[in-house]
Amino acid sequence: MKVVRQIFSASRKGQGIVANIYSAAQALHREERKGLTLILAHANGFHKELWEPTLERVLFHQSKTWYINRAIALDSYNHGDSAVLNRSHVEGEDFSPWSENARDILSVISQLDDPQNIIGIGHSWGASSLLLAEIMSPRTFSALIITDPVLFSGSAKSAAGLAALTLKRRHQWSSAQEARQYFENHTFFRIWDKRVVDLHLKHGLEKEEASGLLTLKCRPANEAAVYLGSADDSPFTTQNLWKVACPVAFLTGEKSDQSPPAHIKAITKPMAECQHVVMDNMGHLLLLEDPDRTADWYIEFLDDFVSKPAVPTANL
C-alpha cells in the first residue's frame, strides 16, 4: 500500500486532524470501474493505523465494478498523532462530546478535492460518529458501513463507570520490550490479531518528554473524556437514526456487549435503507480480532452496493 500523511483542519480553530491516505500501488483499468473514497473512523482509545490489516485486503481486492481511489484513515483530535499535534488543547480534557468527532469528520470531507462516492466505515465510537455526521449533514455519504457501534438511550451511569476504569488502566512502560510483554499477555489484547498488536505498539505509543517513559498517545484522561461525552450524543444519535439518508450496513459481533443483535434490530427499525449482519463467535472488537474476515464482509457489501444502478453523489 502507498501511504501519504496529511494534516487537515479540525472543526475547532487551531486544531488539526492527522490522517493517513492509503491507495493501492497500482490500479489497472480504473476507467471501467467505480472509484470510491473511504473515510475510516476508529474506536475510542485506538488510532488510524489499526485499520491497515483490514484495509490492505480491501484495497487489493480485484473487483470488476469498483476500486478504492483513496482510503482516508483519521486520528480523532484527541487520539493518536492528532493528540500529539493538539497536545496543548487536549491536555487536562475531561469531557469530549461525540458531536466534536462528527464535526471533524465533516470538516475533513469538506477539504477534499473531489468529495464524491464517499463510503464511511467506522468502528465503535467511530461508527457512531459517522452516523451522527450523516444526521448533521444528510447525504454527505453515499453509504455507511457501521461496525459494532455504541448506540444507547440510557443514562450516563455506565459511561462514568467505563471512564473510571480507563483512568486506572496502565498507560506507561519503561521500554518497548516491557510494553510488548504487557500487550501480548494482557487478556484484553491477547485475542487481537498479531498484526494489530504490532501496529498498536508501533504507532500507539510515544516517548513522554518529562518522564522518558513510553506512553499511550491517547492518554487515559482523553479516552475517559470520550466515554463521558457519550451522555447526550449517543442517545441523540440513536433517537435520530431515521434521519440517516444513505444506505447503511451494520456489522456486529454475535458476542458483542455493545451491540447485541436484538438491540441493533430494535433501534434500526425506523431506518429507510438498512441491513444488519451478525458475525458469529465475535465480540465488540471484531475488527481487531479478525481483520481478514471483517474485510471480506466489507468487500461483499461494496460488491453489492456498487452493482446497484447508481451511487448517490455526496451533498456538501
TrEMBL record:
Q: Which SUPFAM superfamilies does the record associate with it?
A: alpha/beta-Hydrolases
Which segments constitute the AB hydrolase-1 domain?
38-296
Instruction: List, alphabetically, the InterPro entries matched.
Output: AB_hydrolase_1, AB_hydrolase_fold, Carboxylesterase_BioH
Q: Which residues cross the membrane?
A: none
| Source species, domain of life | Eukaryota
Q: What's a Pfam family in this record? A: Abhydrolase_6
Specify the protein name. Answer: AB hydrolase-1 domain-containing protein
Q: Which organism is it from?
A: Coemansia thaxteri
Source lineage: Eukaryota, Fungi, Fungi incertae sedis, Zoopagomycota, Kickxellomycotina
